[in-house]
Amino acid sequence: MKNPRLEVDLCKIRHNAQTLAGRLTPRGLGITAVTKAVCGNPAIARAMLEGGAVGLAEARLRNVRRLREAGLTCAVTLIRTPMLSEAAEVVRLCETSFNSDLRVISALSAESCPRRAAHGIILMVEMGDLREGILPEELGALALRVRALPGVVLQGIGANFACFGGQAPEPAIMMALSDIVVETERTCGVILQTVSGGNSANLPWAMGATPTGRITDLRLGEAILLGVEPVSGDRIAGLHTDAITLVAEVIEAGFKSLPSRAAKATASGRRIRPSRTTRLILALGVQDTDVQGLVMPVGTTFVGATSDHLVVVTQNALPRPGGEMRFQLNYSALMRAMAAPDIETVLRCDRPPTDASYAVADPVLAQHRHHQY
Ligand SMILES: *Cc1c(COP(=O)(O)O)cnc(C)c1O
């Protein structure tokens, strides 16, 4: 088998999505599965949908194109607020997008007008994470402007937490978000269909005891793919944390004491003590992944890495060149490995697509899919 490679167990991805859906549905929350960390891999997206996700979310149009080319017709939301320069393709590829700028929304409106279906607008509101989003006090006015535009529908409100500024989605803040929804509905005289309350960091709140209020949906990537809660890094009970594994090949193995001159400094500037443990070099480097985000196998310690080499020491039986080593990954290591051109993705437990991946929210749209993509 080719190395390095990412092994993805689709049964475990399905299980994770299904387990989360089973816990969130009774709380009135749907799951929109986020595929950006796997670059819109269609088989992984399908597994998430089969597990019960109601739709997909992506940050990049290239990944959405990949999903569409693989035949996925489910609703896709663009969760990175669109570039003005990509408005035409956003309305062609995505049912819905997150937005925070009237100029961009106007462009989406103009591009969407000649099309059959209106493009859904979810307005992002700033709740303390200090990334995308408009201030709560400006939301009502913007919502009214959006309501007046042709070709787009004001589909809802979204918020993001624990990404940039680090604001955690505490119960009081989630309640404040619900209040903002009610206020916007009153201002605009509409019922908002979607209130996208946050990401995997929202799970402690979502699976806790406080009411979920007007929140209807969470966008989940990390929790489904890695089975962990991002803020604490803790495993979520009942989920697989080993659905995805990075496999790399050993290219040198042996004992190595550094010559004294070389010991003074390595390329990374770190001094490395000579050691009598087994030292391995693997064909994997910082160009392939976030090496700091690799979980070392038991008995193995990370020593360092360069663009194309990973150096570890191990107490385990000496693997020979040609042997393999398996690593779990954190989110950062995962997304970079998925995007690396030299790392192949190998699917386990793949099965023929079911109807779930072809489900379309709007039956009128369904008849016209073939012409759209
Ligand atoms: C990446 C992203 C998500 C998904 O976050 P996870 O931690 O993987 O669940 C959700 N919403 C937005 C806006 C994002 O950019």
UniProtKB/TrEMBL annotation:
<dbReference type="InterPro" id="IPR001608">
    <property type="entry name" value="Ala_racemase_N"/>
</dbReference>
<dbReference type="InterPro" id="IPR029066">
    <property type="entry name" value="PLP-binding_barrel"/>
</dbReference>
<dbReference type="GO" id="GO:0008784">
    <property type="term" value="F:alanine racemase activity"/>
</dbReference>
<dbReference type="InterPro" id="IPR000821">
    <property type="entry name" value="Ala_racemase"/>
</dbReference>
<keyword id="KW-0663">Pyridoxal phosphate</keyword>
<dbReference type="GO" id="GO:0005829">
    <property type="term" value="C:cytosol"/>
</dbReference>
<keyword id="KW-0413">Isomerase</keyword>
<dbReference type="GO" id="GO:0030170">
    <property type="term" value="F:pyridoxal phosphate binding"/>
</dbReference>
<feature type="domain" description="Alanine racemase N-terminal">
    <location>
        <begin position="8"/>
        <end position="224"/>
    </location>
</feature>
<dbReference type="Pfam" id="PF01168">
    <property type="entry name" value="Ala_racemase_N"/>
</dbReference>
<protein>
    <submittedName>
        <fullName>Putative amino acid racemase</fullName>
    </submittedName>
</protein>
